[in-house]
Design a protein that fits this description.
13% helix, 2 domains, 4 helices, 3-stranded antiparallel beta sheet
Length: 319
Amino acid sequence: MKKVNSMKWLSFFLMAILSVGFMACSDDDDDEEFSLIGMWEYSYNGGYDLYLFNGDGTGKGATSEGVFWTFKYELNAKTMKLVYTKENESAEVWSIEPISNSSIEIDGEWILSKTEKQIEEIEEKPQYEAVDLGLSVKWATCNVGASSPEEFGDYFAWGETEPKSRYRGFTYKWGDDYMTKYCTESEYGTVDNLVTLLPSDDAATVNWGNDWRMPTFDEIKELFSEKCIIEWTEMNNVKGVKIIGPNGNRIFLPAASILWDNEIYDVSEGSCCYWSSSLCTTFEFCFCDEAHCIWIEEDYYTYYATDRFRGLPIRPVTK
């Protein structure tokens, strides 16, 4: 006769009780919102705790001794925050960081197993921070592809939405000598008179969501206008520029320079070059195979235009 694992049996029993609790608290119209999306079982000497995660950010827990409680949780791209109260204990907050696509770990030993739906929700709802500098738009705290202000992040050709290994004319999505999109003069390509990137070609929008976009050239000029204080500095040993807005808030742009083919140009000397979403149209000599950007070094900055195929970092904006 096969031996039955009493702990596993109790686990299923407790899960059934908690699941019934979830169902009882929801209306038929809210089935999707209140659906069960995951379970976390924490084993310890002599027993275990069981957590059931509900789709609306709430959950219920139970111990193998039959103690029940409720909790709330928050998900973002990198962590889960779990807030719960047991019996008469004070509320506790645990920060849980992912260690793989199928589990996340607390303090090196507690494992939360996630369903595929949870993984998708975590990946689809990243939290990006914006700073109100007192300007017409709010500026992100880091570049696309970066997780901190001083990280360079990813490099993009203008109008492309994914980084790549080489940034040359022959690798450019919209053509080399003949532009197939974003062109105002027939001698340079197919004329469509588009001068600002569409959302589908905006790396900030595609990678961060519809609330974000690349700044226009006018918004970049506002950032570097007399409204703001521009200071060359370092953050965590990374050179870059600190910009203080009219209201005293600030952002940092790392000296990520520019990708020329597959090499970062002149990064040892320290320079910043960031894309706008604007085709080159405002200079005396503008060409449809160029787009506006800002070039910053320690002693000066200049409004600039460069070949669209080159790889530059992007600092998004939002309303």
